[in-house]
Write a sequence for this structure.
């Protein structure tokens, strides 16, 4: 099964030139996977082990659709049926995700749905809700819990996902060694923590073990202002989903019943952060910031016009963080080496770009934090 490993580490020469910065900007090309994102790294492992265990059906949630696409494709190759609950707001805004997931042989429902008891409860209480990753997780967990031979598969947050995604950071470390690149800052977007943890945790571990390459490296998480779990949330035990199917998790959270504003970066609309990533942030090994979606799409358009790549709305957050670091280096007239994870492409997110280009993209910042 080809998943574009190793993924290239590329320098953004034209972006550097456009910014007139002395900084050097590198980006990890997770967008070049056949799936268009990093999600296949853990989908492959989870489908394989479930097939080995004799599981015939998997259920899952998906926000923007990247994870649902990945699990649908890989599970089909292992003769496993897949049912995907896609957050309603993204389901409506990205209709071709449904087509792709169906093409790979999976079944997909907009969440909340009529397929589960919890979905029906949410629809009765909040008929116009755009849904959330938490609600979709609850629906997928309920379906798995009530049916024999069915297992739930999660695309982010939990430790095994961080393990599978560590291939990103391990590869990037080796590529930097070969290229004699010493990073001053490593950046990734943050929703549930899969690409952020995959990119940074191997490097944080290497830094703690005394690796000189990372002696002065900072690690930065970039969240949406619509769901700023680390920048605005509390560090405490909480359920991963509003129905309470998951175990209690020690994480930064806005509350398991929190429903973020609708944004195009659907993969970042989660109330909490991976316990491993949360611990890294809590102990000061990781810093975090957040942006409004109008700022991140501006960064995405600049990247498209300089590097020829249209980033996923989620990836635009990491890109915006990298651009701000480069501009800060310019203001201070100092060299700086910036590395960020381009977690996926945005070729199925063009409605968001259309809104940005015609001036109708709404702000995602909230005033209730």
């Amino acid at each position: 099964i080809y998943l574009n490993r190793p993924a290239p580490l590329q320098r953004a020469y034209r972006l550097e030139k456009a910014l007139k910065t002395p900084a050097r900007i590198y980006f990890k090309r997770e967008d070049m996977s056949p799936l268009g994102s990093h999600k296949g790294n853990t989908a492959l492992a989870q489908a394989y082990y479930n097939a080995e265990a004799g599981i015939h059906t998997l259920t899952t949630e998906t926000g923007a659709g990247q994870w649902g696409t990945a699990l649908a494709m890989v599970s089909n190759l292992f003769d496993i049926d897949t049912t995907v609950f896609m957050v309603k707001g993204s389901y409506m805004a990205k209709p071709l995700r449904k087509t792709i997931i169906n093409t790979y042989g999976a079944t997909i429902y907009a969440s909340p749905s009529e397929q589960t008891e919890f979905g029906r409860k949410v629809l009765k209480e909040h008929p116009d809700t755009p849904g959330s990753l938490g609600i979709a997780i609850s629906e997928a967990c309920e379906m798995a819990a009530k049916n024999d031979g069915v297992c739930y598969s999660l695309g982010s947050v939990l430790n095994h996902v961080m393990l599978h995604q560590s291939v990103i950071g391990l590869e990037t470390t080796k590529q930097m060694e070969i290229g004699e690149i010493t990073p001053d800052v490593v950046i990734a977007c943050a929703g549930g923590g899969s690409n952020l943890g995959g990119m940074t945790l191997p490097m944080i571990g290497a830094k703690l073990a005394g690796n000189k390459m990372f002696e002065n490296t900072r690690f930065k998480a970039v969240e949406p202002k619509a769901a700023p779990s680390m920048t605005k949330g509390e560090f405490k035990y909480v359920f991963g989903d509003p129905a309470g199917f998951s175990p209690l998790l020690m994480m930064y959270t806005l509350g398991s019943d929190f429903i973020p504003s609708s944004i195009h970066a659907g993969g970042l609309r989660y109330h909490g952060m991976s316990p491993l990533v949360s611990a890294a942030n809590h102990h000061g090994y990781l810093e975090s910031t957040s942006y409004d979606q109008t700022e991140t799409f501006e960064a995405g358009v600049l990247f498209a016009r300089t590097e020829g790549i249209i980033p996923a709305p989620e990836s635009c957050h990491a890109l915006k963080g990298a651009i701000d670091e480069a501009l800060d280096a310019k203001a201070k007239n100092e060299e700086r080496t910036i590395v960020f994870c381009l977690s996926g492409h945005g070729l199925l997110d063009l409605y968001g770009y259309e809104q940005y280009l015609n001036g109708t993209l709404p702000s995602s910042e909230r005033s209730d934090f």
